[in-house]
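ESCALATION

Customer reports they have been waiting on this structure for their group meeting. Please prioritize. Original submission:
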Amino acid sequence: MKMKSITNIFTQCTIACGMTIALFACSHIDEDEQMVVVDRFTEAVDEPVEYDPDSLYDAPVQEVKRTLLIEDHTGQKCPNCPDATKIIHELMRSYGSRLVPVAIHSQQQGIMEPQGLGTELGNTYFKNWKIEFKPAGLISRMDGGDGVVFDKTIWTMAVQSILEDVSPAPLDIRVKARQEEAELDKADIHVKVIATSETQVSGKLQVWVTEDAIVAEQDSMGVHITDYVHNHVLRSAVNGTWGEDVSVGGFADNKEFEYNISLSSAWKPENLVIVAFVYNDEGVVQATKRALTLSANE
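Update from on-call: job pushed to the front of the queue and completed.
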């Protein structure tokens, strides 16, 4: 994906969004036709898995499609943030596993842990990207001309435009994530970064722990919801705030990484998902996710 074409895409998106806002601003809606819709639950949307995901870890190398990472900077006190969640929900219905969403909670318009979902890690990312509003999204950290942070009104067009490029991704990322019955407070994570072309790719491998199905409070357009379901919530960084160096080049060249992590008692292991992605100065090259699985003792 060339940066110049991305800039043109977002210029067009901005113009289109401005026209849409103007159109609705001029429309009159009678009082009895107005209504407020609040989604109390937001379900995680994934393609059904009909295979053993670990079997893919050592499968033959082949070309793969590009997968986008969506970093949704959000907060439990952000009244417009549930609307952004709906956008991600619909995008996942359309693109399934080609999207990897992560909800990053921080102090601004949020509630910090342990009472809430905000983390110091989220604060660090929020400040690094100089975010001034929520919800704010990073779409594979691609630059739209004015930076990498985008308002929710153009997320759909941004994702559609980027995924129109059907050329194979230069990387495949494979993950195994297991929790042993003997050590339920621990998890073993294996990550393999594989070159799927002769192109040399260098950057940083980032591995995160996220959690689905967290029932917690959320403000939504003037309504305070006590049992809102939060998905894709960033819990921790496995290999440091900014990840670690990785470089592969030449078809099937690969690098493997192994981690043994402690699981917080506040997390539900059955709802944990490991997100892994490689990024560099051009943005996120490739991303993937894999649910944590429980291994029975043999």
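Sent to customer with the following note: The first helix runs from residue 3 to 26.
Escalation resolved.
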